[in-house]
Amino acid sequence: MNTFWRTFKVAAWLGWEMDSNWTEPWLFIVYSVVKPVAGAFILVLMYTVFAIIGNRQDPAAFSYMFVGNSFFIFVGSVLFGTFQVIQSDREWYQTIRYVYMAPISYYVYIVGRAVSKIGVAAFAVAITLVFGVYFLGVQVHLTIAAVPLFLAATALGLAVLLAIGICLGGVSFLTARHTHGLAEGIPGIFYVFCGVLFPLSVLPDWGVAVGRAIPLTYWFDLTRRLLSPTLGVETTLSGYSDLAILALLLVSSVAFFGLSLLIFKTGEYFARKAGKIDMTTSY
Amino acid sequence: MSTGTVRRTDLRYRIGLNLRAVVGRSYPRIIGANREPSWIFFEGLLPLLGIAAYVFIYQSFGARALEAAAGDPAAQAAIKANTNALVASVVLGGTMVAFWLNVLWSMASQLYWEKEIGNLQLYMMAPMNRMALLGGMAVGGMFMTSVRAVSTLVAGIVVFGVVFQVADPLMLLAVFFVALTALYGLGMMFASLYLLWGREAWNLSALMEEPIFFSSGFYFPVGGLFRVPGWGPVVAILGSFVPATFGLDALRQLTLSRTAFGGQLWIFDVKTELYILVFMAVLFLILARYSLRYLELLAKREGKLTSRHQ
User: Fold this and answer.
1) What are the Cα distances from residue A281, in Å, to A86, A176, B29, B280?
2) What is the pTM (predicted TM-score) of this model?
3) Which of B105, B147, B214 would you mutate first to test chain A, the one with the most A CBs within 10 A?
């Protein structure tokens, strides 16, 4: 246990240094904020253009989209922060053989490396939401009573995300340098099917079924219910109570943890067998 | 002069050498990548989902607007036409996203990447022109990326039912290829600069994703920015330094007709935008050549350009 904790601490510190020490702190803060805010502005302009040519405002749909997009920052950062560890250590720094041979848990090392990305993402989420509320009129009304539930939901959502990231890490043991395809594509699945930007009812029936099978859909729904209870957008999940969703997230995070262990160990086994642990694919 | 020296200064020999360098550098991207077919799934198909999300946003707006306009067939027809045009804008933007990401990560960052993995010194010692090397990367990158671009277009037409109306296919091809040349010219220029900037370069590439998608109007007609009072036009003008801005605006006009969106969201007419793109293409290629020369000078003078992890 002590080794796990030490590995986690050192990996988290290493991840933070690798993420941030390339520049001055103020520039790092600007960098961390500009990307997500620009991402949010893409949606602002999509909404604006639709409103201009259709002569119709829809503030509820805009707030729905903005809040979902703000929390989606966690998805991109946590997934990327997790699965890119193997590829960056293997292809970029070419240090994976040394870290892998060290007497530590490589699984815990990856989780530790991802932690700094979660911290930076939390900061970006907060900035994006505050900006939306004060400058774009996004409807957010979080009550004090809802805070514990909101924190619990966020923690469980992040746990599920970490577990999914490790699953992808297990797969990336065996694949070529596809960090960017994965970084774009896997979050893309959640972007489309989890009701992040639009209600699930927009999707075809099979898409709704896929969305309902992904725990993150419930996380986004619960987060939006707690942050913006007055939107009145039908999400097709109104039959679930807040506590039922929380319980579902708890079960999912445990299940995904088990799945992540399985996929990670399987990927690792086949990579070792094929001699791919430290391969480079530099085309 | 020795026979060898005469041969090396012979124009025909040099052209042949550089063409071989172009083929040689594009080879691993075209052939080598196909030996690892997983990239078709990861780089070609998975990213379509992100684009699908943007399509569904417009469809969701459209569905809510249609509900509100129930009982007014004229308004409903207008909403459907506008939604189709916006979805088509996203699909075209999605194809350009593929090329822009390729420019950032496989052109601009590539020399830095080659330095990190130890190939750059071999390139610097080789007798070909460094522009041929970058040209090869660009050709290979365009091929790799065209798979993703084509799959985006096909998905747009087949899955989302987008209707394109191409009245002038030759102009469309001209705009597309000139825009690509300008984009890859910009990538070539960045490749040298990134090498000088070192580790910050990776972060710079990451920083040029969402902000450029936004300021260049990858997912909405960029003319929308000009309709936002105050900061909108400033962002649009800054974004127009990236060739994708004019390229996309012209491509949208050519495939959706100038009357789409009531004709109020275009920057210039197609011909003017083509001229601007030609100017950008020439300018960026010249600047790329100068920055490469400067890079070579530094390589010889300071001798540290091949040191890794700096």
Assistant:
1) 13, 6, 11, 33
2) 0.83
3) B214
